[in-house]
Amino acid sequence: MAINEAKAMLSASAQAEAEKAKLAVQDDFLAPEAMRSNVRGMGVGVKWKNGEPTGEPALVVLVSQKLERSQLSRADLIPAKLGDMQTDVLAIGEVFAGNAEEPGIQTLTRRVRPVEGGYSVGHFKITAGTMATAAYDFLPGASVSPPAHGLGIPPRFYILSNNHVLANSNDARPGDPILQPGVFDGGGLPADLIARLSRFVPITFEPPVPRGLHRNLVDAAIAEGQFHDLDREIYWNGYVQGWQPRSKTLVGQRVKKTGRTTNLTTGRITVLGATVDVNYGAGRVARFIDQIVTTNISAPGDSGSLVLSERGNLALGLLFAGSSVATIVNHFEHVRALLRIEVAEGIG
Fold first, then answer.
1. CA distances from 344 to 119, 231, 240 (A)
2. InterPro entries from the entry (predicted)?
């Protein structure tokens, strides 16, 4: 049954009201030493009742699974209100930052030159992830992109993807080989070397850093390749037309992505401003703040996909983690600022 799309969205003012309420309570509610056993994070979203959105703002508590009240201790119950704002509960499963675990559906696991966004790539020590798109250095004061306006080839051209795809979750050095396709998809021959790791935003992990001290915003990296080997076009989605500021991103907005495993998928933003704990395996957990949560649009191996607005093809976020029921996305505004890169002209 189709939902009421209008009531699944929040206005900018309602979203701002809920964000203010979240900031007042989240540090205490998500203190690692006091977290309820089923809680994995929280953010801002729409209150749902009887399976239907109400259009009302709520603080959305992210849990691994929804349980009956009788199955929870009193200490683990989610209060009806936090501060002055009503709460809702959203099951997001156990969230992992995952590289490929299974074959892709169709064509995006093969070697291709020039490579487009959506295809299989990866550091030579990981299985495989997804190339978001090609990027180039952000030049302060520049208002146009060299590729779009015939102003020449940019001095450096990069593959954009996740840290855990291109930099092996911090365990890599600039200059490391990046393969296309990734190792899991047959990459390994000299001809598969498409780029070398350039820079990445380090991820803070527990251990060794206590989770309450984490301020991770992005799981992102770039690798430099040859201009003729990299294409800014995204398979099935075309060229990025700009990027969408986080201030213009709203709960309920429709989104799409192309990824190595599940190809073209579409979905909807369910939670914004999310703080969420992500499992990286081997006992490591990283807490991310100010994240986007969408309906499930991904599977392992889709990490690194560029999430776009369904209308306008604006870069909205960088997909990096998820579960069988939800996908977690970094705001592109943070990716752009921290890596100092552009993927298209202008601002959406």
1. 19, 12, 6
2. Peptidase_S1_PA (IPR009003), Peptidase_S1_PA_chymotrypsin (IPR043504)
